[in-house]
Amino acid sequence: MAQGEKIIGIDLGTTNSVVAVMEGSEPKVIPNPEGNRLTPSVVAFTDNADTIVGEPARRQAVTNPTRTVYSVKRFIGRRHNEVEGEEKMVPYGVTGAAGEYVKIKVGDKEHTPQEISAKVLRKLKESAESYLGHKVNKAVITVPAYFNDSQRQATKDAGQIAGLEVARIINEPTAAALAYGLDKKKDEKIVVFDLGGGTFDVSVLEVADSGDDDSSSRVFQVVSTSGDTHLGGDDFDEALIHHVADKFKAESGVDLRSDPMALQRLQEACEKAKKELSTLPQTDINLPFITMDSAGQPKHLTMSISRSTFEELIDDLVQRCKKPLMQALQDAGMQPSDIDEIVLVGGSTRVPKVRAVVKEVFGKEPHQGVNPDEVVAVGAAIQGAVLAGDRTDVLLLDVTPLTLGIETEGGVLTPLVERNTTVPVEKKNVFSTAADGQSAVTVRVFQGERKMANANRLLGEFNLEGIPPAPRGTPQIEVKFDIDQNGILSVSAKELGTGKEASVTINEAAGLDESEIEQMRKDAEANADEDRRQFELAEARNKANNMTYQLEKLMKDNDEKLTDDDKAPLEQAIEKVKKAAEGDDTAAIKQATDELEAASQAFTKVLYEKGGSETAGAEGGAAAAGSAAAADADGADDDAIDAEFEVKD
């Protein structure tokens, strides 16, 4: 590794992603080009096949719902039959046969979740490179502790496609514990309660010094972990969406869930309401012109939501957190009273009902000293510094979240690696044949806690052939499981008499071989400049369209007071902007937009002199309207949900 080269830490989240790096002894969360520390995990494809990532993609989702992909973390490394519930709540296409890995369909093209995630990772990589002033080649990427082998491998593949060597995959709660406990001086037992947008994890850790001398390391040992990969803030949003949609349907006869654009607007409004109810006792959802009734009349949605109503809607979901929490404590051999601190991670832990349940279980308030949105990325950056050799005072001991084993006679799962085993680890066991004269065996590898193999997740299988014929039970077949520090499994089987051997690395999970990953990585690199150019063009068009809309509306509202001569200069400038926006010349669009801003200044003066609208009378007048549109296109107005017209939620 080159002198001074950094290994960045990335929290690849369901809703938002964060990148951080260690600068000396201090972690630094790196802002994106929009100036924000959180990057929405959203990727959009325009009708022109352009790609937009992050906040700009989120902003245009309402008018482009079927081509805007979000919450893809719920689909990564999973087969289609495993996501039947999740796919119904997204407006984009989710395809694949029951036993096949999920693909995302946008238009007539299919993308793997790894490709979508790679676009988010590439944006984070570029943000880090811009901040550091040099290329970034390596990253530590976090995953939910309860991610299975398939999901871990798929996440690693996403990193490779983005042009990153994934130095380590670590569990999100473990990363959070690193960030929390790095500078603590006392020995502690802590629980990390991680409720994000799409997943819930809980881990029990012991944090201690390895010795009394100055060279001792701070040891972070994961004792147990548990979780639910189908529980998160998205589910809170969904509960509220159904509540609002059901009430609206009862009142108007229209089901908003059948209209992708209306559903996208409702989803954004409910997410916003959820956040507001974390600090307010009540909030309002206002969505004008949300749909039309059977007579073609526009319908508006206006509804008040109280915190108590919201808490009733999510109560079952919040209560589901208790079972994994108590399971993790039981596996660790601890009681709630044994825990010194509870560290909350993930934006969903801001919901008061969630904090109340944590307090109910432990009898005390959770720790408030970390930013739940950033702490995981900070911990990943710390681990990156350890791997880069910049920190030698940290030792991380993580565990495998689920039992791993093989199918044996009768369809039974015989475990080789029990859940909560510290990794990396190697385990061996000797098996034999089930029939006389058997010359081959099939080794089927499963992950899960069920007694019968087929009730668990099949990770892979392979054949060991060439076994000398012998009575059943005679051949000695050694099966070895090897789990690396990323939690990724390799399995081998060896017939001890002949030395015949076969093996498999469980990396088929992503449905991608190395050549496909390499091709996707090359495609991403080859298209990076073009993607950036198309992004700048889209932003310029958005700004132009917003400004023309605002100014045309201003002219229409004051039409009776204006002559054709009054309007002509502004109309000409507007037409020039519209014509420029139809083309692909970003500079021309920007120049036309600047000229329109100047024309709006002159129009302001005319309108003010004629006693026009209140907008014109305000300081800045029509120019203020144009500037507001420009600011909206630049992301200054987070409530704006369309690049072409502004509808306030």
Automatic annotation (TrEMBL):
PROSITE patterns: HSP70_1, HSP70_2, HSP70_3. Keywords: ATP-binding, Chaperone, Coiled coil, Nucleotide-binding, Phosphoprotein, Stress response. GO terms for molecular function: ATP binding; ATP-dependent protein folding chaperone; unfolded protein binding. Residues 514-557 form a coiled coil. Pfam families: HSP70. Residues 613-635 are annotated as: Disordered. The keyword Nucleotide-binding applies. The modification Phosphothreonine is found at T199. Induction: By stress conditions e.g. heat shock. Residues 621-633 have a biased composition (Low complexity). Transmembrane segments: none annotated. InterPro entries: ATPase_NBD, Chaperone_DnaK, Heat_shock_70_CS, HSP70_C_sf, HSP70_peptide-bd_sf, Hsp_70_fam. Acts as a chaperone. Belongs to the heat shock protein 70 family. PANTHER family: HEAT SHOCK PROTEIN 70KDA. NCBIfam families: PRK00290.1, PRK05183.1, prok_dnaK. This is Chaperone protein DnaK. It comes from Roseimaritima ulvae. The gene is dnaK_3.
